[in-house]
Amino acid sequence: MKKKAKSIGHAVLSVFLLILLDQWTKHLAVVNLAEGPYVIWDGVFELHYSINEGAAFGILQQRQSLFLVLTILVIACVCWLYLFRIPQSRRYRPLNILCITLLAGAIGNFIDRVRQGYVVDFLYFKLIDFPIFNVADCYVTFSAALLVLLLLFYYKEEDLEGIL
C-alpha cells in the first residue's frame, strides 16, 4: 500500500509539473508572440501565436462543450486505469508514464478551454506546413505514439489481460 501511495504522489507531482510547463509556455507565447512569429530556424521552425477553438490540428472548430465532456471522460478513464488497473511494477512503468503524460496534456488544454474558450498554440514546423500545436499536444501525441509502440513491440496479450 505504501508503494501505491508513493507512486500516486509521484504521479500527481509529475502531472502538476508537466501542466505547469505547458501553461508557462502558453503564457510566454501570448506575451511574446502577439506582434508576430519568432523564427528559430528560417524556413523550418518558428514560434507562431495562434488560437485554436477546435481539436487537434484545428478540426471541429467551436465545439467547446463536446471537448469539455470528452476531456472529462478521458481524464476519468486515465485516472481509473492508473489507480485501479495498471500494476505499479517495473514491467508496467511505461504504461504509467503514458497515463501521466496523457493526463497532463488533456488537463493542460482543458484549462485553456475552460478559462478562455480556446487553446493557445505556438509551435510551427513551417518547412512542412504542419498545423500549429503546443506543449500539451506534444504530451498527448507522445502518449499515443508510446501506446502504439508498447502494444506492438513490448506487451504481449497476456500482459494486458488484467488491465483492459
What does this molecule look like?
The chain is mainly α and 164 residues long. The protein has five helices and three strands; from the N terminus they run H-E-E-H-H-E-H-H. Helix 1 (2-32) crosses helix 3, helix 2 (64-85) packs antiparallel against helix 3 (93-116) and helix 3 (93-116) packs antiparallel against helix 4 (135-154). The chain has a three-stranded antiparallel beta sheet with strand order 1-2-3. 62% of the residues lie in helices and 12% in strands. The chain has helices at residues 2-32, 64-85, 93-116, 135-154, 157-160, and strands spanning 38-41, 45-52, 119-125.
Structure class: mainly alpha
**Count of helix runs:** 5
Name the poorly predicted regions: none
- Specify the helix fraction band: 55-70%
What distance separates the N and C termini? 22 Å
Mean pLDDT across the residues is 91
Percent of sequence in beta strands = 5-15%
Strand order of the largest sheet: 1-2-3
Number of DSSP-assigned strands: 3
Q: Please give the radius of gyration in angstroms.
A: 17 Å
How would you describe the shape? globular
Give a short account of the largest sheet: 3 strands, antiparallel
Order of helices and strands: HEEHHEHH
